[in-house]
Model the fold of this input.
Amino acid sequence: MYYIKTVEDRVRLPPSMFGSDLNDALMRMLRERYEGRILKDMGIVLAINKTRVQSDGTVIPGDGGAYYSVEFDALTFMPVVNEIFRAEIKEIVEFGAFASIGPFQGLLHVSQISKDKFYYDKKSKTLGSKALGKSIKKGDDLYVKVSTVSIRGTSSDTKIGLTMRPDGLGKVEWLTKKASPKDVKKEKEKAAKAEEKKPEEKKAEKAEEKKAETKGASS
Done:
């Protein structure tokens, strides 16, 4: 999720920038310090805006620079567990797919694509299921949910886990494609079989209850 956070900091302005506009100079220093950095409690800092000087410059003996207390707005991105994203697949590997969520990439493990098994096809570089007749490849758009987040100091060290197993998630075209009459028929047959099993399950439950009652009476 994207956030705008208000941050306070103390900034050293070097003598070479004394002739510049104060706000512009401080903004430049803050952007160099913060933009692109990943902070554990804030996520990645994307942009610095609206610098507000909170004090007069302070000079320390032996230091030619001037120090200012500054308040500013930081645009940040921090993924949150259970958050839903529309993501694009950037890379397919044997154990899953890497997909973009904001400025980060998360791992969609092969076991998290669906409740059914998906397999890696080395020739086509896709992850697919023959039983479902579905596959995903580089460039596909997906709806994913964040399952785990571990923010580190760099993008390569930050680990984000993704899943598509819950209902309502998956490849965009899977969700928008209308079910064929054949698929509808299969679903109806599956539901009918489930209903047929229920009376048998109820009989088994009643039999177990009777056994328990008999044991209780004999004891």
Q: What stands out?
A: Residues 2-77 form a domain with the Dna Ligase; domain 1 fold (CATH 3.30.1490.120). The chain has three domains: 2-77, 84-176, 181-208. Helices lie at 22-34, 172-176, 181-218. The radius of gyration is 29 Å.
